[in-house]
Specification:
Layout lengths: L7 H30 L9 H6 L4 H30 L5 H34 L17 H19 L9 H26 L2 H26 L1
Helix pairs in contact: 1-3, 1-7, 3-4, 4-5, 5-6, 6-7
Length: 225
């Protein structure tokens, strides 16, 4: 990428997007550890059980995690848009492919979390529970979780892989190449894990991808300084 002619507006947007992505994923990690450790995130029982849990501390924190993830996805898309705008002419195709996969990823992700924060939450409060399982994130076999996982695994992986050639041979550039590659690999593992119900791969994906995104967002922030 060519940073020599980077204008101040692009630099500020890049710093804000990467900074918010780093902060949001860091907060999500902290809150999710609290969910598992302090509040003992309950296993799925039924939609009526979930409706009865509204207002409890774990449910409120889980909702906060959903809102944070909604924001982080948008930050990633903005970051990829900036990388595309800075790509060298001979690498514009790779940058465009990464951007297209990022858009596909964020469409699925933002739809998922917006539905959780509005439609699902409203119907739980109103006790209108008919067929709501298929729209609920906590139900691991729901239709909507499959769509979300497709975005956060396969599409996120391809977006990461096609970003790799864009970075230069500087120290930060090389580290960005490595971490985007690692993120892509973990996302592919997640896709395989969720497709074939391999829990060990799901665990590897969830932890590896989360750490990779925090690192790549921090490196991107430093890249724009």
């Amino acid at each position: 990428m060519d940073l020599t002619n980077l204008d101040s507006t692009t630099r500020i947007i890049g710093l804000c997007a990467s900074g918010l992505l780093c902060i949001s994923f860091s907060l999500y990690t902290i809150f999710y550890v609290m969910l598992i450790g302090k509040y003992k995130l309950p296993k799925w029982q039924s939609i009526s059980f979930l409706a009865d849990e509204i207002g409890k501390p774990w449910f409120k924190l889980f909702t906060v995690c959903q809102a944070i993830t909604f924001i982080s996805g948008i930050c990633y898309l903005i970051l990829v848009c900036i990388f595309y705008s800075l790509a060298k002419p001979e690498l514009r195709l790779e940058a465009l492919i990464s951007l297209v996969f990022a858009v596909m990823f964020i469409v699925l992700s933002s739809e998922h979390y917006y539905i959780q924060l509005t439609y699902v939450l409203t119907r739980l409060k109103e006790k209108r529970l008919d067929s709501l399982e298929e729209y609920t994130q906590l139900y691991s076999k729901s239709m909507i979780i499959s769509k979300n996982i497709l975005g956060w695994t396969l599409f996120f992986a391809f977006s990461s892989f096609f970003l790799i050639p864009l970075f230069d041979a500087s120290t930060l550039g090389l580290w960005l190449k490595i971490v985007f590659a690692i993120n892509g690999v973990f996302c592919i593992l997640g896709f395989i894990g969720y497709t074939f119900n391999k829990m060990i791969l799901n665990i590897l994906y969830f932890n590896g991808m989360g750490l990779a995104v925090i690192v790549v967002s921090l490196l991107s922030f430093l890249y724009f300084l």
